[in-house]
Structure formats: structure tokens, C-alpha cells
Amino acid sequence: MSYVDEVLELVKKKNASEPEFIQAVTEVLNSLRPVVEANEELYKKNAILERITEPDRQLMFRVPWVDDKGQVQVNRGFRVQFNNAIGPYKGGLRLHPSVNLGIIKFLGFEQIFKNSLTSLPIGGGKGGSDFDPKGKSDREIMAFCQSFMTELSKYIGADVDVPAGDIGTGAREIGFMFGQYKRIKGTFEGVLTGKGLTYGGSLARTEATGYGLLYLTQELMKCHGESIEGKTVVVSGAGNVAIYATQKAQQMGAKVVTCSDSTGWIYDAEGIDVALLKEVKEVKRARLTEYAAARPSAEYHEGRGVWQIKCDIALPCATQNELLIEDAKQLVANGCKCVCEGANMPTTIDATEYLQQNGVWFVGGKAANAGGVATSALEMSQNSERLSWSFEEVDAKLQNIMVNIYHNIDDAAKRYGMEGNYVAGANIAGFEKVVNAMLAQGVC
Ligand code: NDP
Fold first, then answer.
1. Which residue from 107, 141, 172, 241 has its CB within 8 A of the most atoms of ligand 1, so it is best to mutate?
2. pLDDT tens for residues 189-237?
3. Cβ distance 315 to 335 under 8 Å?
4. What pairing do the DSSP bridges indicate for beta strands 338-340 and 298-302?
5. Pocket of ligand 1, candidates 240, 278, 398: which has the most ligand atoms within 8 Å of its Cβ, to mutate?
6. What confidence tens digit (pLDDT) does each residue in 310-357 have?
7. Which residues pair with 78 in a beta bridge?
């Protein structure tokens, strides 16, 4: 049995109740086979794969808070500090009822490679809670965030672990958590990213993941003699990533015709009106039915369905496992040329393989959505310098990082004879840097 298969068996046995984590490890290790085979003796002796698939530590804690009726509520908090070989742990905090340890572990594991790909000194981690921010008052959100941070503050710090936003955690939640950290520790430090601009946040962080996704997609298209201009784009999601991906795609001359949320989706033949989408989702925090009600060209449909719309480029920007094999078949049948993931692991393994086998240029989230964490790392740099860079400065660095990521993953795939396999390229390029650091640092 090969070393990769041995470790896959071990991971499946040790984490049997965590399907998303097993899915992520399987995808990564399978694509690393050529690198591992070329270095099998060294990696096996140093138990590199066993170490990289086992978090440094996983924290799970009670989060008690009082709701507006005076009732005590109890949620579960998580922080998985996965690997700090190349820098402090870095990764978002997800607040969503579906959150469990397996989901946080899969996200933390993926984060190691994504952070490495940015070329910035950040390790991999992830956290969150099964708390549902939907329908809660600002006071309830604050009560939850303060309680969550009261426990989390024991384990994080500007040089230790720097959490950020993710699904359900935006500027409001980061603000409440930062305030509580400061109060407990008595120190003003860059312990969280995604902060407000008046207290250490970075310009362009809000836009970074969506914009970065488009910068990478543009470079990919350019290298294939194509352009984004004039293309029809299908986007899923209606949150932070989806909104700014839509905005940048339209600035680049594409027409984005869909968006979706957890209850339904929109087809807007005239192109999504970003200002209206922002009003509905960022200001009113309402359902997409409100978008359709305000826009005559938009159709609202219950459930899921954006992938059935004919497009040149598809950008899944909502959540994990939202693009399934039947969706992949529909995209290919409709002539879609390119799929770049704004969300983390939105495409299932069989759907990914189908797209790749049918000639679709497919870039996974690890590379394609790395602009968010890269800009978070730029926020850390600004905090350390006690300086704030202009929007243009940050945006230019982001563009540069995304273009470099594309070329790094393209080169890595070519080096191992897998030209065009950007998933393998991303895993290999991210992995090589972390492994070199792990080997240099000895058994730890
Ligand atoms: P948001 O919470 O801002 O938006 C998420 C969107 O996806 C919402 O429209 C939400 O619908 C929808 N959604 C959430 N869960 C489901 C579900 N189970 N089924 C269908 N739709 C769902 O999150 P972000 O935009 O920040 O994150 C989106 C994805 O991108 C996640 O995978 C995240 O991990 C990833 N990501 C985010 C980064 C960032 O900087 N924000 C960086 C890198 C990756 P509704 O409006 O109904 O809640």
C-alpha cells in the first residue's frame, strides 16, 4: 500500500464521524501523490502526512449568553489551530447552525495550503460556532460575541493566532469580539482581521475575496487567450464573496445573471444590480425575494438552481458542496469554459473531476479565494507598522498576489506533468512550502 493510501486509511479511521474533513484530506492527498512518491522515504520517516493531517490542537468550548427574553442560551465554540509551520495560525470564524468540529477541521486543513499559496507568513486555523446570527438583535449578537471571545481570548494573540470573518461573521461581529479581547487583555493589538477602518482595519479587505477571485480568473482567461469582457457569468451566494465578485466581474465587462441564498435564487437577464443586492443583503439583511420585488427583470426561484443557467464562467461563492455532479454536467452541456471557486470546497470531488475531464478550466477555492486571507495578512502588516495603506495600494498588492498565485499553481502542475490541473497545482505549491518549513523545524 502506498504511503498516501496508508495515511488516508488512518485519517478515515481516526475521524470517522467527520465526512467533510475526510473529503478535504482525500482530495488534497490524492492530488499530492506525485510529490509524495518523489520524496516517499523522507516524508514517511518524518511522518509528514500524519503530522499535517493532525491539528496542533482543537479547542471546543461552551458559549453561554442571555437572549432578549432573559433566557440563557448555550452554543458550542470551536477553534482548530492546525499548523503554524510558516506563521501564526490564521483563518476565519464561521457562525452558522451547521458548524461542527468536522467542518471546522476541514476548513482549517484547507487553510494551511491556501495561506501558504499567498506567499505571506501565515499558518492555518479556523474556528466558529453553531450560533445562528439570523434574526438576532444587535444586543444578542454582542452578548454571544463577548461570551465567545471571553473563552477564545485565552488561546489567540497577534503572534499566536489571528482569527477573521467568515460566513456569519462580518464587521459587526469582529468589532464586538475585538472590543471584548481588548477589555480582557488590556492591549490594543492586531489580534483579529476584518476590523473596522477606524480601529486598524484594512481598506479593500471587504472587497478582497471577491475581487481577488476575479483577478485570478482574469489571469487564467488571459493565459488561455480569452478575456472576461463580454462573458456571461453565473454566481451563487449573495454574501460578502458573491457581492464583490459580481461587482468586479461587471467592472471587467462581464454580465453576471444570477445570485442565490440559503432559500432561493435569482435569474436577472439584465445583469445583477449590485447596489440593490447590497441594500437587500448588507443593509436590510433580507431574503432575495426583496431583490426580485424591486427589480422587474429578475425572476426568483425557490431552492437551488443557478447552475442550470447558460454561462461562460461559473463562480460558486456560497458554501461547501453546493455544486454537485448533475450541476457539473449541466454546466458542461451549456458550454461553460471556466469554474473558479469563491467559496471553500463548493464543488464535490466527482463534480470537480467531471469538469476537469471535460476540459473546463477549474481553479479550487484554495487558490481562487485566497485574496481574502492575503488581504488579512496585509492588515496584520499594517497593524504591526501602525500604518494604514490606501485602497489603491492594497488593491494593487492583492492583484499582484492573485496573478502570482495563478502562475505558481500553473507551474507546480506543469512540474509534475499535470498541466492544466490547477487543483493539484495549488495543493502541491502550498504543500511544498509548508513541508520544507516542517522539515527544517524538526519533530514538532
Ligand atoms: P456570507 O455569510 O457573507 O454569505 C454566504 C452566502 O451563502 C449567503 O448568501 C448565504 O445565504 C449563502 N449560504 C450559506 N449557507 C448556505 C447553504 N447551506 N445553502 C445555500 N446557501 C448558503 O459568507 P461569505 O460570502 O463570507 O463566504 C462564502 C464562502 O466563501 C464560504 O465558503 C467561506 O468560507 C468562503 N470564503 C470567504 C472569505 C471571505 O473573505 N469572506 C474568504 C475565503 C473564503 P443567506 O443569505 O440565506 O445566509
1. 241
2. 999 999 999 999 999 999 999 999 999 999 999 999 999 999 999 999 9
3. no
4. unpaired
5. 240
6. 999 999 999 999 999 999 999 999 999 999 999 999 999 999 999 999
7. 60, 128
CA-proximal residue: ligand 1, atom 42 (nearest): 372
Strand partners, 361: 338
Classify 200 in phi/psi space as left (phi over 0), alpha (psi -120 to 50) or beta: left
Please tell me whether the overall predicted TM-score, pTM, comes out greater than 0.70 for this model.
Answer: yes
From the centroid of its chain, how far is CA 152?
A: 21
- Are 419 and 101 in contact by the 8 Å Cβ rule? The answer is no
Give the catalytic positions in this structure.
126
Q: What is the Å distance from ligand 1's center to 342 Cα?
A: 9
How far apart, in Å, are the Cα atoms of 303 and each of 41, 56, 70, 260, 285?
Answer: 50, 39, 35, 9, 19
Query: In the structure, what pLDDT confidence band is assigned to residue 162 with cuts at 50, 70 and 90?
Result: very high
CA of 318 to the centre of ligand 1 (A): 4
Residue 239 Cβ contacting ligand 1 at under 6 Å: yes
Locate the ligand 1 atom nearest the alpha carbon of residue 318 and give its number: 7
275-308: per-residue pLDDT in tens? 999 999 999 999 999 999 999 999 999 999 999 9
